[in-house]
């Protein structure tokens, strides 16, 4: 299994038989308005371009998973890509109608904790809570995915979430070989962080039974945590050897 980190949360999982795209934010730099105006500098998003090797990787995509509807996970360019190539999409049952109205081809819709057949294996929708306190209600529905494919490492796409009992259950009971975690500590102009604070990222990394794949970094104006800061914190807590912090365009083999 290869994991290709493109940008932010956009990830491609490649096996010998399938190429799974996760959360396609595929637009050019500065095509999305700032997510915060006052707390951090109001730069337009994404802050960085897609890596040069993304075109080749995307040309092999056979199916797509969408965790939620925010534009940093499915933007206009991502929608166009999926429509033009008629890529089958898997999403939460709560998002099916909205994505169908955008012209996408929904072939599976998931409910939380109900496993379904997927590419010869199984996929399970996992609850994700997108923020601490009241802000999570404003962020709407989010779904992570636990994926088990034949003769492959199991992988947990935790999506945009804080550390919750659901996250803990997957790490302890499902024991994923690979677990992704969004590490940008995103914040809007109001409310608490939308993603795990550093102490919860460290808890996630410590509890994960296998390798951890850190993403959602250095691509959006409301995500202050840098790769260097994350690396330093992990090293201080003797967790760095468990965690990959890939640069955009990096591919890792498991």
Give a quick precis of the structure.
The protein is an alpha/beta fold and 254 residues long.
Describe the structure.
This protein is 22% helix and 26% strand. The strands form two sheets. A seven-stranded mixed β-sheet has the order 6-5-4-3-2-1-14. It has a seven-stranded mixed β-sheet with strand order 7-8-9-10-11-12-13, covered by helices on one side. The protein has a single domain (2-246), classed as Metallo-beta-lactamase, Chain A (4-Layer Sandwich), CATH 3.60.15.10. Helix 3 (96-101) links the parallel strand 5 and strand 6. The longest helix is centred in the C-terminal third of the chain and has 10 residues, at 165-174. The protein has 254 residues and is α/β, with parallel strands linked by helices.
């Amino acid at each position: 299994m290869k994991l290709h980190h493109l940008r932010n949360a956009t990830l491609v999982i490649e096996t010998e038989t399938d190429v799974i795209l996760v959360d396609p934010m595929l637009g050019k730099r500065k095509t999305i308005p700032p997510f915060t105006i006052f707390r951090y500098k109001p730069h337009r998003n994404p802050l960085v371009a897609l890596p040069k090797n993304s075109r080749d990787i995307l040309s092999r995509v056979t199916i797509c998973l969408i965790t939620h509807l925010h534009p940093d996970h499915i933007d206009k360019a991502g929608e166009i890509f999926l429509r033009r190539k008629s890529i089958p999409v898997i999403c939460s049952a709560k998002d099916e109608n909205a994505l169908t109205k955008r012209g996408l081809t929904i072939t599976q819709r998931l409910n939380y904790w109900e496993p379904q057949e997927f590419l010869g294996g199984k996929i399970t929708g996992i609850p994700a809570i997108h923020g601490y306190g009241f802000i999570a209600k404003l962020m709407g529905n989010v779904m992570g995915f636990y994926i088990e494919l034949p003769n492959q490492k199991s992988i947990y796409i935790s999506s945009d979430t804080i550390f919750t009992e659901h996250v803990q259950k997957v790490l302890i009971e499902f024991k994923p070989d690979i677990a992704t975690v969004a590490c940008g500590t995103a914040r809007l102009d109001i409310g608490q962080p939308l993603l795990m604070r550093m102490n919860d990222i460290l808890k996630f990394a410590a509890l994960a039974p296998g390798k951890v794949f850190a993403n959602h970094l250095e691509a959006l104006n409301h995500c202050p945590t840098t790769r260097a800061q994350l690396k330093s914190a992990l090293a201080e807590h003797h967790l760095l050897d468990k965690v990959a912090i890939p640069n955009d365009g990096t591919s890792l083999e498991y």
